[in-house]
Amino acid sequence: MDIGGLETVVANSAYVAARGSVDGGAAATMRDKKMRAKLYLPHIKQCENMKTTVDSAFDSMCVKQPIGKRLFQQYLESEATHKPSCELWKDMEDYNVSDEKDRKQKAQKIVNKFYDSASKTFCKFLEEKAIARVKADYTNIRNDLFKESEKQLLKHLETSALTGFKKSMYFLRYVQFKWLEGQSVNEEWFMDFRVLGKGGFGEVHACQMKATGKMYANKKLNKKRLKKRKGYEGAIIEKRILAKVHSRFIVTLAYAFQTKNDLCLVMTIMNGGDLRYHMYNVDEKNPGFKEPRACFYTAQIICGLEHLHQHRIVYRDLKPENVLLDDAGHVRLSDLGLAVELKPGKDKTKGYAGTPGFMAPELLQSKEYDYTVDYFTLGVTLYEMIAAKGPFRIRGEKVENTEVTRRILNDPASYSDSFSKDCKSLCEGLLEKDPTKRLGFKNDTCDELKNHSFFKNLNWGRLEAGMLTPPFVPDPKMVYAKNIDDVGAFSTIKGVVLDNKDTEFYNEFSSGNIPIPWQEEMIETGVFGELNLWPGNGKLPNDLDP
Ligand code: ADP
Ligand code: MG
Ligand code: MG
Predict the structure, then answer these.
(1) In this predicted structure, what is the pLDDT of residue 26?
(2) Which long-range contacts (C-beta less than 8 Å, at least 24 apart) are formed by 18-22?
(3) Any residues with Cβ below 6 Å from ligand 1, and which?
């Protein structure tokens, strides 16, 4: 073995070991004790001023932020009047992610306990109409059975429990955690493992947050290279969009910080490689996927797109290469560097962006467009998963981009026998050349698409909750990345001088910990539980004693 090969073997084994120890729920054993000790709650006096400035809007604090929600629910459970509402809340969430065969029984229990006026835990705040509808319908398996009730429950909690929560010791605990969340990290907090891939401005490495043991991917953007190649605008857009979206179908940004030479985006690590690799490189004699597998990935991609579009973001670069697998075989969208956010009051955008062979007709014709372009790229992606070639290319053919463009504008796609009737119909609906007729995002959802017969056997509720078993699980010992010396080095950048304006930009970029993913990490790795201690019998812990 040559030295380069050996280097890869050594790097792989360290990375595989770190990955494995985390999968086993043993993140704690991988922690660096010295760094873990830096995660502590301050005495409440130390963050007194934050009591009035902290984000305490109901929806954000009590519903969206995982630590806020936990503490709010602990408060509800401590108050006899709110206890049943909290139980109903948890039961409804449990119902939504339950297996179909258990749902009827679960619904029956909920109805008896909370919807029956004779029950001592009857929830009076539920409106008669909602009660009647649930009672009439609960024997049918439905994903939205409790949707209306949940809205009324949250409305009720906002008016009846928010004020009490803000006066309670649980809110003080929330303030302490928000203080800790606000303490930015730097490179000292992360241990780098092997390189996973190469981007335009730097490498992406596997890394581990030393204090919690959680593994992430660290995308580095070299400051000088960014400046030389005028990458500031794109970098800040990608960062802003990643920080704004929170979906299990899009890579999540957890930290943004800087080092002397780089800007760093610390994101969900996707160890399983990209869809392109799995389509063509795993079984080279049988490229592409069987329909059930393609169906699963397409459904997860749709959930990712729906989330982006609900946040007014056009992705523009959907393709198999940008869809990454995690350890379990679930997929997420990545590389949001070409995405754009539609400005308030503006419903369209312009501009040539994307990958040849994937771009929609309206974009190629320099017209104004919106989310429709992402459903065309979805059509190309689904087609390619089945046919193992793009709809506007012949396999193995070398073809000019102008010819591909001509075909996209003029030619229909042709479908082999590998396509079922349903799959072909979905592809045709997505590859529709007229954006107004194309399947896609309507009335703020993808419901029309989700109800297509191609997905008739899919439980969307369970898919959206991440509860479906993926059709393929990546090998935990396999490294789905190139050998280290094949990744390729960057040339050195000469003649770039950084000044105060650059520093200003870097500071804006390095905004620190992103609240929701940071809170998830604390909960998931057990740190939240270790820090959130209560002496019991309603007494105040020392750190909250004024
Ligand atoms: P760029 O926008 O500069 O092209 P990308 O975001 O595409 O950078 O990242 C470059 C490469 O790094 C990808 O092709 C992929 O191989 C790898 N990579 C990127 N993000 C992740 C991630 N979250 N997990 C694992 N590997 C990743
Ligand atoms: Mg890329
Ligand atoms: Mg990019």
Answers:
(1) 59
(2) 18/193, 18/206, 18/208, 18/215, 19/206, 19/215, 19/271, 19/327, 19/476, 20/476, 21/213, 22/208, 22/213, 22/214, 22/215
(3) 196-201, 204, 217, 219, 251, 267-270, 324, 334-335, 337
- 78 in Cβ contact with 97 (< 8 Å): no
- Note the pLDDT tens digit of each residue in 510-521: 999 999 999 999
- 246 vs 462: which has the higher pLDDT: 246
Q: Looking at ligand 1, which residue's alpha carbon is closest to its atom 7?
A: 335
* Residues 6+ positions from 64 with CB-CB distance below 8 Å: 246, 516
For ligand 1, atom 18, the nearest C-alpha belongs to 197
Q: Which residue has the higher pLDDT, 488 or 131?
A: 131
Dihedral sign for Cα atoms in the order 110, 113, 117, 121: negative
- Beta strand residue intervals within 124-200, DSSP E: 190-198
Ligand nearest to the CA of 204: 1
User: Which ligand 1 atom sits closest to the C-alpha of 199?
Assistant: 3
Q: Do residues 338 and 400 lie in contact, with contact meaning Cβ atoms separated by under 8 Å?
A: no
Q: Angle, nearest 10°, between helix axes 83-96 and 147-160?
A: 150
Q: With 70 as the cut, is the pLDDT of residue 1 above it?
A: no
- Catalytic residue status for 317: yes
Closest of 43, 402, 480 to residue 392, by C-alpha: 402
d(CA 473, CA 478): 11
